[in-house]
């Protein structure tokens, strides 16, 4: 297989998503795949998990980055080494639609006291949330916002902090991400 990144897609409180919202999750994964497919690393296997609302309890309600950290710590997938990506319906914060460490660390149980995996919401349109999924995974693999390093981005790019658009990975971004320990050759 090409240089790739395997993912565990963990839908939090999946039983309270409407069919339309579940479709938005799947379509967002497809948009993320399309963004990464331009120059790689490509999204490889997507393993699917879900957590019922009654099991997640208050951990499904995210008010900010601290709650995302608690969620990611509690529900780490221990059966494989793929990147955990948590999906929630919404984040109850006026500005935030997702969180990720920049870059994230490999080895699930080694990260203590900080966010260990991307946590994304399906806020906005499907185009918006597809961009959010790719954006936060990009952060995990070491990509900064374009505003921090314009040399990595084109004029429109999914790593712009403000209004991201669904443009693909640039060659410079691919080179950065391929070096990350979570990416498999
Ligand atoms: Zn960002």
Describe this entry's structure for a reader.
The chain has helices at residues 19-37, 53-56, 65-74, 126-140, 171-178; strands spanning 4-12, 42-51, 83-88, 98-99, 119-121. Strands 2-1-3-5-4 form a five-stranded mixed β-sheet, sandwiched between helices. It is α/β, with parallel strands linked by helices. Helices cover 30% and strands 16% of the residues. The mean pLDDT is 94. The chain has one domain (4-178): Collagenase (Catalytic Domain) (3-Layer(aba) Sandwich), CATH 3.40.390. The structure holds zinc ion.
Tell me the CATH topology. Answer: Collagenase (Catalytic Domain)
| Number of contiguous helices | 5
Radius of gyration: 15 Å
Poorly predicted regions are: none
Query: Which H/E pattern describes the elements?
Result: EHEHHEEEHH
Ligand list:
zinc ion
Q: What is the distance, rounded to the nearest whole angstrom, between the alpha carbons of the first and last residues?
A: 8 Å
CATH superfamily: Collagenase (Catalytic Domain)
Report the CATH C-level class: Alpha Beta
Strand tally is 5
Q: What descriptive keywords fit this protein?
A:
185 residues, alpha/beta, Collagenase (Catalytic Domain), five-stranded mixed β-sheet, 5 helices, 5 strands, 16% strand, globular, binds zinc ion
Chain-wise SSE layout:
Layout: E1 4-12, H1 19-37, E2 42-51, H2 53-56, H3 65-74, E3 83-88, E4 98-99, E5 119-121, H4 126-140, H5 171-178
Parallel strand pairs: 1-2, 1-3, 3-5
Antiparallel strand pairs: 4-5
Helix pairs in contact: 1-4
This protein binds zinc ion.
